Amino acid sequence: MGRNWTFFLASFAHSFANFAVKKREFNRKERKVQFHTVCTTFYAVLRFSASTSRGCAVNGLMFHFGKNHLFLNFFHFSFDFCILSSIIPTRFVVFPFIPPEINMPRLEVRRLCVFWLFVLLSVQTAAAVPGENQDIWRVDLRAVAHLNADGHNFLKLKFYRWQNNRWQLSDAETFFGTQHAEIPLILFAPGYSLTTQETTQVGLGIVRTFDPNKPCRVLLWDWYSDKKGIKIRRDIRNKIPIADNTARYLALFLKELKPQSKACLFGFSFGSRIVCEAVEALWRSGQQPDGLRLHLVLSGAATDQCWLAKGQRHSNMPEIVEKILVTYNPGDWVLRYYHLIYYLRCKSKALGSVGPPMRSIAPEHRNRFESINVERYIGNKHQTLSHVRAPAFRSRINTYFFFE
Questions:
Q1: Which of 49, 262, 271, 298 supports an S-S bond with 189, CB 3.0-4.6 Å?
Q2: 106 band by pLDDT with thresholds 50, 70 and 90
């Protein structure tokens, strides 16, 4: 049993036991308040366990499970603890080490809440530090988002390296000069409406799911996906040419890898579109490095399902790819409206919503695809870490990310 669930069971058992012991001594009104305290304690600790745990089998009961942003976790912790401190006038029953006979003033309770909030915040921040064998980089493409992808503009890309819990400016020569063909490169292309800070948080969350003893190089493909304006449909349509141009930069990047390199391209939502377009452009150019081993992981892909069919937009992509993992979610509430990108009555369906069309894919490419329905693990969420933390996904990390 993990640390979070031990905390949860001890806290709830302590609260319920105190309610049972004191039941005869309370009148009806006091029993109602105490029972409400038990229920609120159960709710807050359940939220705590859901927010900090790395995986749980009953995530359907936890709508706050797998939150991507550390600030939102801190906000919800503050909200829960403020509710508890306001309804409990004498003592704070969430902490099981406080004896029932000790009465605490409300001011001391709030101070104790603030102290534990900072403890939780520091624990989550420390957990984001990668291991010694995990080399994390970031490529900033925001300055070249509207420039044509060619060799001249490719030199304008900014490379950053994660050192001492911050990004340190580096360059392309250092990145390619320190690359080792035997160490897998894991490239993550985020989806729509993610800032640089959010991309960093999601990327570090993905790294935490890896075995710290296995060496790898992680590259965050930080493209210009920031949300602009209040009309989401118009903004997404404006991001389509930017994503396609970003894919051409990724194709140029793949050409610079050393021979016999191993690269896993992980795309989520719009990032899957970038990954597929880049591999397709690499196939058309015919300039892929010798012996390059490619794996693709497409999660919640915001691309047309029919594009993988024979003779369609991405039909040639599997020829230079060893394995392709597609995680789809029929209940995804975002991809449910994917067809609105085109027009109201369009019948196009997202790959991340219905999975790959195996019958339409070329017969020689079908054995390279593997699809997983993650709806029973994540519900209707459209979040990167929700897909990554799904047990079916985590069991395949070594196969697709580390080429084992």
A1: 271
A2: low
Q: Which helix (H) or strand (E) holds 89?
A: none
Residue given tokens 């990327």 in the structure block: 203
d(CA 92, CA 71): 24
Q: Which domains does the chain have, with CATH numbers?
A: 3-127 (no CATH), 134-400 (3.40.50)
User: What tens digit of pLDDT does each residue of 259-289 get?
Assistant: 999 999 999 999 999 999 999 999 999 999 9
- Among residues 263, 233, 346, 356, the alpha carbon closest in space to that of 305 is found at 356
Which residue in 180, 97, 188, 86 sits closest to 136, CA to CA?
188
As a whole number, mean pLDDT of residues 311-321 equals 95
Residues 6+ apart with CB under 8 A from 153: 144, 147, 249
Query: Which tokens is 234 given?
Result: 């118009």
Q: What's the rounded Cα separation, in Å, for the pair 287 and 213? A: 34
SS3 46: helix
Q: What is the pLDDT of residue 97?
A: 41
Q: Which helix (H) or strand (E) holds 140?
A: strand 134-140
Position with higher pLDDT, 219 vs 36: 219
Nearest to 326 by CA among 381, 391, 396: 396
Q: Are 162 and 130 in contact (CB under 8 A)?
A: yes
pTM above 0.70, yes or no: yes
